[in-house]
Amino acid sequence: MNLFKKKNYIPIGRTMPKREETAHEPEQQQETPAIPDGMWVKCRFCGGLIYKKEMDEFQICPKCGGHFRISAAERLAITCDEGSFEEFDANMVAKNPMDYPDYDKLLEKIRDKSGLKDGVLTGLCRINGYKTVIAVMDSNFMMGSMGSVVGEKITRAIEKATQLKLPIVIFTCSGGARMQEGIISLMQMAKTSAAVRKHNDAGLLYVTVATDPTTGGVSASFANLGDIILAEPKAIMGFAGRRVIEGTINEKLPDDFQTAEFQLSHGFVDKIVNRRDMKDALTTIFKLHNIKKGEEGNE
Amino acid sequence: MSNASEVLLKARMVSRPTSLEFIEKIFDDFFELHGDRHFEDDKAMVGGIASLDGMPVTVIGIQKGHTVKENVERRFGSPNPDGYRKVVRLMKQAEKFHRPVIQFINTSGAYPGKGAEERGQGEAIARCLYESSGLKTPVISIFIGEGGSGGAIAMAAGDRVWMLENGMYAVLSPEGFASILWRDPSRSGEAAELMKLTAQDLIKNGVIEKIIPEPEEGLENNLEFTTNIIKEELKKELAVLCVKPYDELLEERYQRFRKYGEFEE
User: Fold this and answer.
1) Is residue A183 a part of any domain in this protein?
2) Contact criterion met (CB below 8 Å) for B64 and B77
């Protein structure tokens, strides 16, 4: 049992990517915790100023416990056993299926700024010894919006898990469909959901971890199809954007609307897990599903 | 006026025939079934069992209205999660009794409401996609007017997707698209041009398999013209789909959606 052993984190060369303001669905326009180069950061949950050195790799506000958005690389570092992550499809990049004006230039700019090729990293890893396929979406790339690359990488990761008879863990973080890729983005919803179905029919485990935000087309496809759905505290999860709903019903929505806590009370989340405890929670779930450890896997 | 804007206008006309009118003309003995067995009967989604020239089928459609009163009741054809759960219920019932499923789509999108979110709009649509992908009976979807966003694809994840000549299908309504990308919903005309949402565009990129013609005098003036074609096409297509072994049917359905995506490696 490695539950209580000291955690090892994989070193990630990438620096914290700069936040990119891009076109995305209105609900995605929440304030992101801009982390300046200075010594202090402002918490977007409590507004408190945090001395940067007080924040560790989990990036949780020491004052209020608010969970800052973290990059996919940072997520992998706190989730996977050191050196265990083997990336799939590392070089896949988007094309411009709709000939959306300047989409190629926009992609190039965001790729440069974020150090990412698109909105998700996928691969094989071990979590406290348990071998699993993992996919982590990244809000720094057009708010994790799902176009061809996100849809294809997620689908391939699920298919790989089915083929290797492994579980899959997906950390979702997305504003929804990638508008610039039009109808092809929408098709990714059916594609990913069908892949989940095959993985499910093979009797394999799929755990969703919803992080802030998990909305739109991603919430209406693979994000809501996990056997077990975990969520980070206060993560926004929902289909339609708050402002769209307020505009439709002409009514102000409560502050906790579409939060992970709201989804828990309405029966759409199994458990809210603090980021510090996430690795242990996943470990317990793997253990209870008799997932094999390390090299006993099927590869 | 350009083609996309023209199509958009026609697809949205209040006089455009609704799913129930198509169902009445194409099928006999339509027997409507109500409710999702979870919460309520969503009036934006209609469904039931019917006969296609003697063959029992399950028919489901997103229902708009012709009057303000009817449209308010039916939320202008924007279903709640209860509507999508009704779809899942009727699809599974169809599977049990080996009936093909015919779906009519006409929506600008799933309803963005408070109750819709409380009852899991995202989960309901996801479940529709998930169940469609493995349903052991043929599923044919027809876009008869508007098709927008997740609320539309939830019912277009089967074996064949067809569209009326003046139908449309897009990732989001042109207004929503313009407001997200340019923060200006008034540029919806420009968005419509860019979005490649017409039947002609969609058949080119393989999103739909067939375009169903509409009469020159307008669909509302001669619905039989189009429903007769749909009826014949359905009979032809189902004759092919209904004799396929399930694993072949399901694998072809999987590959139908698996192919979408443009990327470089």
Assistant:
1) yes
2) yes
Beta-strand runs (E) in A89-129: 93-94, 120-127
A151/B261 Cβ within 8 A: yes
Q: Cα distance from A84 to chain B (closest Cα, Å)?
A: 23
Q: Which of A188, A219, A249 sits opposite B260 (nearest CB)?
A: A188
**Above 80 in pLDDT, residue A27?**
no
Round the average pLDDT of chain A to a whole number and report it: 90
How many of the other CB atoms lie within 10 Å of CB of B243?
Answer: 9
Give domain status of residue A104, yes or no.
Answer: yes
B123, A268 in Cβ contact below 8 A? yes
pLDDT digits (tens, 9 = 90+) for A188-200: 999 999 999 999 9
Task: Check if A239 contacts B (Cβ < 8 Å).
Answer: yes
- Count how many domains chain A has: 1
CATH architecture under which domain B3-253 falls: Alpha-Beta Complex (3.90)
CA angle, residues B59, B63, B66, in degrees to nearest 5: 135
A:176-195 residues touching chain B, CB 8 A cutoff: 177, 179-191, 193-194
Interchain CB distance below 8 Å, B125 and A93? no
> What tens digit of pLDDT does each residue of A31-46 get?
555 555 678 889 989 9
A29 inside domain: no
Chain B contact for A64, CB < 8 A?
Answer: no
A188: which chain B residues are within 8 Å (Cβ-Cβ)?
Answer: 260-261
Domain with A289 in it: what CATH number? 3.90.226.10
Per-position DSSP letters for A244-274, written without gaps between them: HHHHHHTSPPPTTTTBHHHHHHTTS-SEE--
Please report whether residue A168 resides in a domain.
Answer: yes
Residue ranges making up the domain that contains A188: 69-294
Least CB-CB distance to A183: which of B171, B180, B257? B171
Report whether A178 contacts A137 (CB < 8 A).
no
Averages of pLDDT over runs of 10 residues in chain B (265 residues) are 84 96 98 97 98 98 96 96 98 98 97 97 98 98 97 97 97 91 89 94 96 96 98 98 97 98 96
Q: What is the ipTM of this complex?
A: 0.97
Q: Kindly state whether B169 is in contact with chain A, defined as any CB-CB distance less than 8 angstroms.
A: yes
Cβ neighbors of A206 (< 8 A, separation 6 or more) are A158, A161, A167, A168, A169, A170, A196, A199, A200, A225, A226, A227, A228
| CB count in 10 Å sphere of residue A117 | 20
**Length reported for chain A:** 299
